[in-house]
Give the backbone structure.
Amino acid sequence: MVLDLLDRYPRRLLALMAAGCVGLLAFGLYLQHAVGLEPCPMCIVQRYALILVALVAGIAAALSGRSGRSAGVALMGVIALGGAFVAARQSFLQWYPPEVLSCGRDFYGMIESFPLKRAIPMIFKGSGDCSAVDWTFLKLSIANWSFLCFSAIAVVSLLLLLRRQR
């Protein structure tokens, strides 16, 4: 079925991937604002990667030219690999937490320790602990699920590129 989608409807598949990324971002914001989970700096990087994948997939889906779409798919795959790398690193930190981890600082500590000019960018970097597992589904953490999603996006990107060669 997936191979059929790759051959017949690559633009629809790209649009579906963009929508899926937007859904994952919305769920992350729900966990942050409704459930109260504080994102760590690695979580923020993964969010940026999801935003980029969604944008590139949406643009690639809108392009009618084959070469432009292929370039978008290749870029999407590279971004997904970067997101998978960060998620894998965070998963490793969760499985084997270091004795001392300084992944982020609290808001008041940043304001007291740094001038406002330096503290404001630090606020948007996240302040949660990267090795903490605050939420699980089917015994997998958010970082584990993020790794699986980014890996799936990278595999689909590769399959789309390989199918184009035929």
Helices lie at 2-8, 10-35, 41-62, 66-95, 107-113, 116-123, 142-165. Confidence is low (pLDDT under 50) at residues 104-108.
